[in-house]
Task: structure prediction
Amino acid sequence: MKEIIDNWKKHSKEEYDENLNYLKSLKGNKYVDSTAADLDRTVFNKVDCLQCANCCKTTPAMVSRPDAKRIAKHLGIPPKTFIKKYLLEDYDGSLMINGVPCTFLNQDNTCMIYEVRPAACREYPHTSQFGFHRRSRMNAKNTLVCPATYEIVKRLKEIYP
Result:
């Protein structure tokens, strides 16, 4: 795991443009989704997110209205109170956690609301989801945030040069 994180820290920023162009080149390859999902399982068997938590430290999570309702219930507060206290609402009505690091991130990198965390957190970094080959910009940006995503893209380059 240390090697993956060290490699990510050393190379992710300098390789961003290369990774973005590479991921764009995969757009027509429908086989990439299943390969990325397989790599996701392999890489996440080696990466312990609790040793990093960079996503929680740097990227405010999107929160759907059903997420907000579920989390508010878990916290024992009304949804409107939860939204007002913990979320920002964008001009289009979308919601996100109101700061970084995430309000719900504990000192030991665990999550206070893990059992009811937003879908965006459960699904992050989206490398195992259908449509991976269509999300080149998001996946490239995630290589800057997540060492596992960086490693998955690195391995994809070996499979689909």
